[in-house]
């Protein structure tokens, strides 16, 4: 069962990569066209999946932590809340809350509040730059400001 999730992401990444070749751009250069980012993201995903699979092969089978079974449920609830709050709270606040919720669910830097807040802000800002600045997507704002 420990290989089920990486296998799922492997299949999903392969489908995603295959679909990128259906994208047609106006530029003849590959790295300037619309396929460059999805192909780069797929390559990164393959590399990260390889790391995960190698770690799982090396890791001794240890019993799951008591909260591990609930994590997928918490992630689904956090994602549902994010979808519901995205429009009314705007991108900035809703994404910051969502990222923070995921960090808490996966216990990432929860003992270090300053690092926790800094990482949450960096992730939120990174995706803002990616979508709003690079891709030009209009994201909802809180009170027309954030």
Quickly describe the structure:
Helices cover 66% and strands 0% of the residues. It starts with a helix and ends in a 12-residue tail after the last helix.
Helix and strand layout, with pairings?
Blueprint lengths: L3 H17 L15 H23 L12 H35 L7 H22 L12
Helix pairs in contact: 1-2, 3-4
Q: What do you see in this structure?
A:
This is Tripartite tricarboxylate transporter TctB family protein. Residues 5-140 form the DUF1468 domain. The chain crosses the membrane at residues 36-57, 69-85, 115-137. Pfam families: TctB. It comes from Paracoccus nototheniae. The protein has 146 residues and is an all-alpha fold. It has four helices and no strands. The longest helix has 35 residues, at 71-105. The protein is globular, with a radius of gyration of 18 Å. The mean pLDDT is 80.
Instruction: Tell me the β content.
Output: under 5%
User: Nearest-angstrom radius of gyration?
Assistant: 18 Å
**Helical coverage, percent range:** 55-70%
Largest sheet: none
Structure annotation, total helices: 4
Helix/strand order: HHHH
**Rounded mean pLDDT score:** 80
Number of strands: 0
Structural class: mainly alpha
- In terms of per-residue confidence, which ranges show pLDDT below 50 for 5 or more consecutive residues? none
What overall geometry do the principal axes of the alpha carbons give?
globular
- How far apart the termini lie comes to 42 Å
């Amino acid at each position: 069962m420990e290989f089920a999730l990486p296998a799922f992401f492997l299949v999903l990444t392969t489908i995603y990569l295959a679909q990128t070749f259906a994208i047609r751009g106006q530029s003849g250069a590959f790295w300037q066209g619309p396929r460059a980012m999805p192909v780069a993201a797929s390559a990164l995903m393959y590399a990260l999946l390889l790391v995960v699979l190698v770690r799982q092969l090396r890791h001794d089978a240890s019993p799951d932590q008591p909260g591990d079974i609930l994590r997928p449920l918490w992630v689904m609830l956090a994602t549902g809340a994010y979808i519901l709050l995205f429009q009314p709270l705007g991108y900035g606040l809703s994404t910051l809350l969502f990222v923070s919720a995921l960090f808490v669910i996966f216990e990432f830097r929860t003992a270090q509040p300053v690092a926790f807040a800094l990482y949450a802000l960096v992730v939120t800002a990174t995706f803002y730059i990616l979508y709003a600045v690079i891709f030009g997507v209009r994201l909802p704002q809180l009170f027309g400001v954030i």
